[in-house]
Amino acid sequence: MKRYLFFVALATLLACGTLQAKITLPSVIGDNMVLQQQTDAALWGKAEPGRKVTVKTSWNKKTVRTTADPQTGQWLVRVATPAAGGPYEITISDGEKVTLKNILIGEVWFASGQSNMEMPVRGFQGQPTIGGTEAILAAHKERPIRVCNVQKQSSIEVKEDVTCKWEEHTPGAVAATSAAAYFFADAVQAALGVPVGIIHSSWGGSSIQTWIPYEVLKEQFPEVDLGSVEKTHPVKSANHDGCLLFNGMVAPLLPYTIKGMLWYQGETNRGAPDQYIRLQTAYVQAMRDRFQAPDAPFYFVQIAPWPYGSPQSFDCGYFYEAQQKSLETIPHSGMAVTCDVGDYGTIHPSRKREVGQRLAWLALEHDYGFDAIKADAPTYAGVTFQDGKAVVTFNVDNLCLAPIGTPLEGFEVAGEDRVFHKADAMIDGGGFKRVIVSCAEVPAPVAVRYCFRNWCKGSLYNTYGVPAAPFRTDNW
């Protein structure tokens, strides 16, 4: 009997040792994931401290070896990925094998922000996504789009893991993921014909400060309250306090190898446009550093019009301007303009397909070689005033402004009294790169604004259907 109990105990001890030695992986590394093609893609996890770890990839039959940290057991390797394809398998072992299945190689994008990025393909309650039902019903596993939705987690400590799971292109997965990010993936995959993966991490109402690492905020933004992280006072807001969502919802994903970043955020920071330029610039640099992707493209959405309690106020206009100025401070960036797709009754516009497509057009032109389109918004270039009219010139491609021969909405002019009035506007027939603006109530205009109020409706595009960016000619 004693001998039997001895062997039972020994077997239990050996089994426990085996379980402890088994590889553990972060949630973002798993079945169905998409790895960035033609890179050295990062894979990492934990093993028993000091244990040898091997990683074998089925696409080239090669094995990469490393040793788990002798104190923490953490390990990281990089595996060379081929051109897009799959499905493949990856076998990871420290003596006991873990096999990851149904892996695709393609294009990986990280999507983040607040509620307009969070808004799923199925919509919010009482707030539908136009085209969402069709997208859900058309989803099938054979199409190589994969999504990984990061569950909400706010933390004063940097987390090692977060709940998330790579999912195939099924109706349920599509319904639950970010509409803006999904329609981006839909357009990119259709154009490239390769697998596309989206890692989606967003939280409605969040500030940009909460997505920025502590060290960056501490060094560059002394005005940002970090007391909750420094434990000088309790957390005031789970999705506002500095770095809490970076700690909980970004850090656990690092350093997953990505192609680029998508960003739809700003409504919460609307009241501080000048600071936002600095914050967004710092955010992008921090993400590029921590994803170890210094050249990763960054494409963001200019917030959509909404009354914000005062539809005639210019608060949104100043923020639009700040977002556009950040293009000058962030290399390899682009902005999707949405001044034409707002909904007066909700801050969450239903036309997310246009948002995703405009982000995709930026990537397709600037990163994937589709130079037959012009995805950048027409922008204000200059103005002259003559004979009671304003002649506004735009930076626009050779196919020019559109639609010609149609009265344009959203333009206003002011005289020396600085009072703006709704104006008549038409594209000038001499080259189609200028707009003639006039107003009977302002016989001597000195300033022009376009879609600069909280609530507006954009009407000016380039020939490819990309809307012109809001602007003002004054500095009042």
Describe the model.
This protein is α/β, with parallel strands linked by helices. It folds into three domains: 23-104, Immunoglobulin-like; 106-366, Rossmann fold, CATH 3.40.50.1110; 380-464, no CATH class. It is built from ten helices and 23 strands. Strand 12 (298-301), helix 9 and strand 13 form a beta-alpha-beta unit. Helix 5 packs across helix 10 (352-366). The termini are far apart.
Summarize the structure.
This protein has 476 residues and is an alpha/beta fold.
Q: Based on DSSP secondary structure assignment, what is the total number of beta strands?
A: 23
- Low-confidence segments, given as residue ranges, are 1-20
Mean pLDDT score: 95
Approximate shape = globular
Question: What is the fold named in CATH at topology level of the largest domain?
Answer: Rossmann fold
Tell me the radius of gyration.
26 Å
* Total discrete domains: 3
CATH architecture of the largest domain: 3-Layer(aba) Sandwich
> How many H/I helical runs?
10
Instruction: Please state the structural category.
Output: alpha/beta
Give the terminus-to-terminus CA distance.
92 Å
CATH superfamily of the largest domain: SGNH hydrolase
Q: What's the topology here?
A:
Elements: H1 2-21, E1 34-36, E2 40-46, E3 52-57, E4 62-67, E5 74-80, E6 85-93, E7 97-113, H2 115-118, H3 132-138, E8 145-149, E9 166-167, H4 171-176, H5 179-192, E10 196-202, H6 214-220, H7 244-250, E11 260-264, H8 273-290, E12 298-301, H9 315-329, E13 333-336, H10 352-366, E14 379-386, E15 389-395, E16 401-402, E17 411-414, E18 420-422, E19 424-427, E20 434-438, E21 447-450, E22 461-462, E23 471-472
Helix pairs in contact: 5-10, 8-9
